[in-house]
Amino acid sequence: MCPSPRWFHYPERRLLAGFLGLLWSVLAGGCATTNAPVAPDTIDEVSVVPAPEAPEYIPVVRYGRYTLVELAPTAAQRDLLLQTIDVAMPEDARATVGDRLRHVLKRSGYGLCQTAHAVIELYALPLPAAHLHLGPMTLRDALLTLAGPAWKLHADDRARQICFERSDEGASAEPAPEPSVFEAVQTFPIEEGRP
Known about the structure:
This is Type IV pili sensor histidine kinase and response regulator. There is one protein chain. This protein has a domain at 75-166: Phage tail protein beta-alpha-beta fold (3-Layer(bab) Sandwich). Helix content is 26%, strand content 17%. It is built from six helices and seven strands, in the order αββαβαβαβαββα. The protein has a three-stranded mixed beta sheet with strand order 4-7-6, covered by helices on one side. Strands 1-2 form a two-stranded antiparallel ribbon. A hairpin with a 4-residue loop joins β6 (151-156) and β7 (161-166). α3 runs antiparallel to α5 (139-147). The chain starts with 10 loop residues before the first helix and ends in an 11-residue tail after the last helix. The model has no long low-confidence stretch (mean pLDDT 77).
Protein backbone atom coordinates (compact mmCIF):
# COMPACT_ATOMS: atom_id res chain seq x y z
CA MET A 1 0.00 0.00 0.00
CA CYS A 2 1.29 3.45 -0.97
CA PRO A 3 1.35 6.09 1.70
CA SER A 4 -0.91 9.04 0.92
CA PRO A 5 0.16 12.62 1.43
CA ARG A 6 -0.42 13.86 4.92
CA TRP A 7 -2.20 17.07 4.13
CA PHE A 8 -5.11 15.26 2.43
CA HIS A 9 -5.96 13.67 5.78
CA TYR A 10 -6.94 17.01 7.17
CA PRO A 11 -10.18 18.42 5.71
CA GLU A 12 -9.24 21.96 6.67
CA ARG A 13 -6.22 21.84 4.39
CA ARG A 14 -8.25 20.46 1.51
CA LEU A 15 -10.78 23.23 2.01
CA LEU A 16 -7.99 25.83 2.15
CA ALA A 17 -6.40 24.43 -1.04
CA GLY A 18 -9.75 24.57 -2.85
CA PHE A 19 -10.38 28.12 -1.64
CA LEU A 20 -6.92 29.27 -2.75
CA GLY A 21 -7.43 27.64 -6.17
CA LEU A 22 -10.77 29.42 -6.56
CA LEU A 23 -9.24 32.72 -5.46
CA TRP A 24 -6.38 32.30 -7.92
CA SER A 25 -8.73 31.61 -10.83
CA VAL A 26 -10.81 34.71 -10.01
CA LEU A 27 -7.73 36.93 -9.75
CA ALA A 28 -6.12 35.53 -12.88
CA GLY A 29 -9.32 35.77 -14.89
CA GLY A 30 -10.22 39.27 -13.81
CA CYS A 31 -13.63 40.81 -13.81
CA ALA A 32 -15.13 41.53 -17.15
CA THR A 33 -18.21 43.60 -17.64
CA THR A 34 -19.77 44.21 -20.98
CA ASN A 35 -22.05 46.98 -22.05
CA ALA A 36 -24.60 46.44 -24.74
CA PRO A 37 -23.73 48.43 -27.86
CA VAL A 38 -25.83 51.49 -28.41
CA ALA A 39 -27.91 51.15 -31.55
CA PRO A 40 -28.01 54.22 -33.78
CA ASP A 41 -31.37 55.91 -34.13
CA THR A 42 -31.30 55.95 -37.89
CA ILE A 43 -29.02 54.49 -40.46
CA ASP A 44 -28.28 57.06 -43.14
CA GLU A 45 -26.08 55.14 -45.47
CA VAL A 46 -24.38 51.80 -45.52
CA SER A 47 -20.67 51.91 -46.18
CA VAL A 48 -19.16 49.04 -48.05
CA VAL A 49 -15.69 48.00 -47.04
CA PRO A 50 -13.57 47.60 -50.17
CA ALA A 51 -12.02 44.25 -50.78
CA PRO A 52 -8.36 44.12 -49.78
CA GLU A 53 -6.00 44.59 -52.68
CA ALA A 54 -3.88 41.71 -53.81
CA PRO A 55 -0.36 42.04 -52.44
CA GLU A 56 2.22 43.27 -54.92
CA TYR A 57 4.41 40.50 -56.25
CA ILE A 58 8.05 41.04 -55.28
CA PRO A 59 10.46 38.52 -56.76
CA VAL A 60 13.03 37.18 -54.31
CA VAL A 61 15.94 34.78 -54.44
CA ARG A 62 17.33 32.72 -51.57
CA TYR A 63 20.90 33.42 -50.51
CA GLY A 64 22.05 31.01 -47.87
CA ARG A 65 19.80 29.24 -45.44
CA TYR A 66 17.92 32.14 -43.85
CA THR A 67 18.36 35.05 -46.27
CA LEU A 68 15.91 36.15 -48.95
CA VAL A 69 16.96 39.02 -51.21
CA GLU A 70 14.54 41.09 -53.29
CA LEU A 71 15.29 41.19 -57.01
CA ALA A 72 14.79 44.94 -57.32
CA PRO A 73 17.15 47.93 -57.40
CA THR A 74 17.56 49.97 -54.24
CA ALA A 75 16.50 53.61 -54.04
CA ALA A 76 20.15 54.70 -54.25
CA GLN A 77 20.56 52.67 -57.45
CA ARG A 78 17.51 54.34 -58.99
CA ASP A 79 18.44 57.89 -57.92
CA LEU A 80 22.22 58.18 -57.82
CA LEU A 81 22.09 61.32 -55.66
CA LEU A 82 20.71 59.17 -52.81
CA GLN A 83 23.80 56.96 -52.62
CA THR A 84 25.59 57.07 -49.29
CA ILE A 85 29.14 58.36 -49.29
CA ASP A 86 31.82 58.66 -46.65
CA VAL A 87 34.75 60.62 -48.05
CA ALA A 88 37.97 61.55 -46.31
CA MET A 89 39.60 64.05 -48.62
CA PRO A 90 43.34 64.32 -48.95
CA GLU A 91 44.73 67.37 -47.23
CA ASP A 92 46.17 69.89 -49.66
CA ALA A 93 47.31 73.43 -48.96
CA ARG A 94 45.67 74.74 -52.15
CA ALA A 95 42.40 72.81 -51.92
CA THR A 96 39.42 74.52 -53.52
CA VAL A 97 35.73 73.75 -53.48
CA GLY A 98 35.89 72.77 -57.16
CA ASP A 99 38.65 70.21 -56.47
CA ARG A 100 36.63 68.65 -53.66
CA LEU A 101 33.41 68.59 -55.69
CA ARG A 102 35.26 66.66 -58.41
CA HIS A 103 36.74 64.33 -55.76
CA VAL A 104 33.31 63.57 -54.28
CA LEU A 105 31.82 62.95 -57.74
CA LYS A 106 34.76 60.77 -58.87
CA ARG A 107 32.98 57.38 -58.70
CA SER A 108 29.38 58.56 -58.41
CA GLY A 109 28.52 58.46 -62.11
CA TYR A 110 28.16 62.26 -62.29
CA GLY A 111 30.46 65.04 -63.41
CA LEU A 112 30.50 68.81 -62.92
CA CYS A 113 29.10 71.03 -65.65
CA GLN A 114 31.55 73.66 -66.84
CA THR A 115 29.21 75.94 -68.78
CA ALA A 116 28.30 78.76 -66.38
CA HIS A 117 30.82 81.51 -65.67
CA ALA A 118 29.22 82.30 -62.31
CA VAL A 119 30.07 78.79 -61.13
CA ILE A 120 33.77 79.43 -61.64
CA GLU A 121 33.48 81.75 -58.64
CA LEU A 122 32.21 78.82 -56.55
CA TYR A 123 34.90 76.44 -57.79
CA ALA A 124 37.68 78.89 -56.88
CA LEU A 125 36.63 79.28 -53.23
CA PRO A 126 39.02 77.80 -50.64
CA LEU A 127 37.85 74.64 -48.91
CA PRO A 128 37.01 74.99 -45.20
CA ALA A 129 38.74 72.57 -42.84
CA ALA A 130 35.32 71.35 -41.68
CA HIS A 131 34.76 69.86 -45.14
CA LEU A 132 37.87 67.63 -45.20
CA HIS A 133 35.75 64.67 -44.06
CA LEU A 134 32.17 64.28 -45.28
CA GLY A 135 29.86 61.48 -44.33
CA PRO A 136 28.27 59.21 -43.98
CA MET A 137 25.63 61.18 -45.88
CA THR A 138 23.88 61.14 -49.22
CA LEU A 139 25.68 62.43 -52.28
CA ARG A 140 23.14 65.25 -52.63
CA ASP A 141 23.76 66.43 -49.06
CA ALA A 142 27.55 66.26 -49.51
CA LEU A 143 27.37 68.40 -52.66
CA LEU A 144 25.09 70.94 -50.99
CA THR A 145 27.39 71.05 -47.96
CA LEU A 146 30.43 71.76 -50.12
CA ALA A 147 28.64 74.44 -52.16
CA GLY A 148 27.01 76.18 -49.22
CA PRO A 149 23.60 77.80 -48.81
CA ALA A 150 24.18 80.49 -51.47
CA TRP A 151 24.07 77.90 -54.28
CA LYS A 152 21.30 75.68 -55.69
CA LEU A 153 22.03 72.22 -57.02
CA HIS A 154 20.61 71.07 -60.36
CA ALA A 155 21.15 67.55 -61.64
CA ASP A 156 20.97 66.84 -65.37
CA ASP A 157 20.13 63.13 -65.32
CA ARG A 158 20.35 62.77 -69.10
CA ALA A 159 23.95 64.00 -69.27
CA ARG A 160 24.67 62.98 -65.66
CA GLN A 161 26.04 66.37 -64.77
CA ILE A 162 25.75 68.38 -61.57
CA CYS A 163 25.28 72.12 -62.04
CA PHE A 164 25.13 74.92 -59.50
CA GLU A 165 23.53 78.33 -59.75
CA ARG A 166 23.26 81.17 -57.29
CA SER A 167 20.18 80.95 -55.14
CA ASP A 168 19.68 84.73 -55.38
CA GLU A 169 19.53 84.98 -59.21
CA GLY A 170 16.55 87.36 -59.08
CA ALA A 171 17.99 89.50 -56.28
CA SER A 172 20.42 92.33 -56.75
CA ALA A 173 24.12 91.51 -56.80
CA GLU A 174 24.93 93.98 -54.02
CA PRO A 175 23.54 93.40 -50.55
CA ALA A 176 21.49 96.18 -48.98
CA PRO A 177 23.62 98.45 -46.78
CA GLU A 178 23.17 97.88 -43.08
CA PRO A 179 21.98 100.87 -41.08
CA SER A 180 24.51 102.53 -38.82
CA VAL A 181 24.18 102.26 -35.08
CA PHE A 182 22.77 105.76 -34.85
CA GLU A 183 20.11 105.10 -37.50
CA ALA A 184 19.07 101.82 -35.91
CA VAL A 185 18.29 103.42 -32.53
CA GLN A 186 14.89 105.08 -32.46
CA THR A 187 14.68 108.20 -30.28
CA PHE A 188 11.62 109.70 -28.72
CA PRO A 189 11.36 113.47 -28.06
CA ILE A 190 11.01 114.51 -24.44
CA GLU A 191 8.37 117.11 -23.86
CA GLU A 192 9.01 119.55 -21.06
CA GLY A 193 6.41 120.28 -18.47
CA ARG A 194 5.07 116.72 -18.31
CA PRO A 195 5.61 114.72 -15.13
